Amino acid sequence: MISDFPRAPLPLPDEAEVDSALAAHGGPAMVPADRRRTQFPVITKEDVFTMLLAQRQEPEKVVAGFTEAYRDYVGAGYALPTASGTASLHMALAGAGVRPGDEVIVPAFTFIATAQAVVAAHAVPVFVDIDPLTYCMDPAAAEAAVTERTAAVMPVHVHGLPADVPSLRRLASRRGLALVEDASHAHSARIGPHVAGSIGDAAGQSLMADKNFPLGGEGGMAFFATEEGYRRAVRHLREHGIDYRMSWVAAAFGSSQLGRLPYYDAVRARNAELLGDSLERTGLFTPPHVPEGWTHSYNMYRIGLRPEAVGLGDLDPHAVKAAVHELLVAEGVPAREWQNTPLPFHLPFRERSGFGRGYPFTLSPAGSREYTPEDFPNTLRMLDSTLVLCRELRAPVEYERILRYRDAFAKVAARPDAVRDLAARQEVPHPYERAARLG
Amino acid sequence: MELFDTAMVLTRVMTSGVVMSIEKSDRELPGLERLLTKRTKRSHAVLVNSRTAAVHAALAGQGIVHGDRIPGGSLSPETRAFVNWLGVETTGTGAPAFDEIALDAHVADSLPERAAEATAPAIVVDLTGLGFGPAAAVLTDDPTVWARAERLKIFGAHDLRTMWTQEESMPDLVPGVQFNYRLSPLVAACARMALMQTARKNVETGARL
């Protein structure tokens, strides 16, 4: 039997290790090489038992029961289960009334599914820059991109921090646009009491097995504020013969995971706070910015760098980042880059062939717009000067593991000389000029 | 399939901890691919999360895109609507762009014979009727059809790593519109077991007679 049970525990942290030689210089790694695997999702006896019970139910009832439970948790008016997050975004756009040739404003920094869902809706994505603090869509940039063809604005709650939806709602109301959330990172994230997915006119959310709220494999959920929106999406599926149905196997897995989601959210929040407090003390690192009243769900944890705070202000930020990245990885912290290429520069949006022969890009003048990296200065700055943790904060990792991550950041931050030496020895292109380093 | 057998399969996969379709260590999806290629005597299988995803993959794999035409005579109204939604016109008769085989527990053992009769460059095998939710596959002997279809289902990438890095050594194969059509390993494991059992029941061992 192959099992995901960890074979060896991590040793408890020891403060003396922070002062030891860097692992990149031959010292001991903060997280030993054979203990670096982070298991996610957590699958329990409860999940197995729920799955076995589901076998004895009608498949449609399993999916419907899960859908209603999650709709109620999110607080949305209506919910439509789908086979993937991309499908849910497509349905959210269809339900919001987006039609072929419409323009939909999306952030340049997100996963490609956001913009591909717009293309799936036979509409044209229009890319705008992000806010420099939250890394979510900049409302001012969105407003500047509105044309008479704009039908919707689709912010992404990047990494789990809700975008500035109040500002975007005012924009949408003023210009007669639909507000569609991409909540694929933002399970349980909130603005005040309002859960991501329930704030816009419609929303799409990935529930793939590597998200904070995982289903058994792949899945998604589209949410709608009104019955009209929900019915429009269902009609779209029927008229076009599209099968986006969710498997009962995925839904059964989600039913038991949903019951434990608040627990895992609490562990994520606790670990994020613990790590954030210690990062602030390093000088070099900064934790994610969370506006007052916002609840971050930490699907990813983006860490900023302040080279000037440790005497490295004369170096290029991206050179410092590359050096720090290498030192952290050597310590066993699987820090990553994520989506180094802003969406307009991904192959499908450079070539814009869409479904073929340029459809639907040929339907709108925005479809032929040429973007340059300079259109997205905040995105480029963020890519130059930040790193992300993924499963390491997403999973309810052992307490000793989060403490060891904490100590690894402190260890690297205490060696600006080593960062300087490494940065000086490396010729590193800007992140947007190369593939992302995944750890 | 017996409930006990399904329970065993689901428990086995969940105990492995690998339930994501893009995990390097997943063994369920490759296992179903191998079984389907063996049964159909085709070189390549592309697993997807629905029949319509397989139709899309079969067309995109052959480079049939928006503005193209295929014979529509043999297509069901639902399939025709979907193909039209892709922007592909369906007119008249002729050699089909793809053959369709729908399997359920009663006819699953007919896959080899039906695949042998198929003549199109791609076969859409609908596995939904096996009872584990929407699931399908495209079977083909054409490596380019396979490579394009694989990239359609995972955002133009060809594995987990390139999905995140967007690196591509063969940009001509990257589709313009991309989806997540990936199949769950849990569903794949159940479908594989169901197909294996249909083969066994036709083997007369005499053990239970």
Automatic annotation (TrEMBL), chain A:
Keyword set includes Cell membrane: no
Domain of life: Bacteria
MF-aspect GO terms: pyridoxal phosphate binding; transaminase activity
Keyword Transferase: yes
Record keywords: Aminotransferase, Pyridoxal phosphate, Transferase
Cofactors required: pyridoxal 5'-phosphate
One example of a Gene Ontology biological process annotation: polysaccharide biosynthetic process
Pfam family membership, one: DegT_DnrJ_EryC1
Family indicated by similarity: Belongs to the DegT/DnrJ/EryC1 family.
Protein name: Pyridoxal phosphate-dependent aminotransferase
Organism: Nocardiopsis kunsanensis
From TrEMBL, chain B:
SUPFAM superfamilies: PLP-dependent transferases (SSF53383)
InterPro entries listed in its UniProt record: PyrdxlP-dep_Trfase
Name of the molecule in the record: DegT/DnrJ/EryC1/StrS aminotransferase
Biological source species: Nocardiopsis kunsanensis
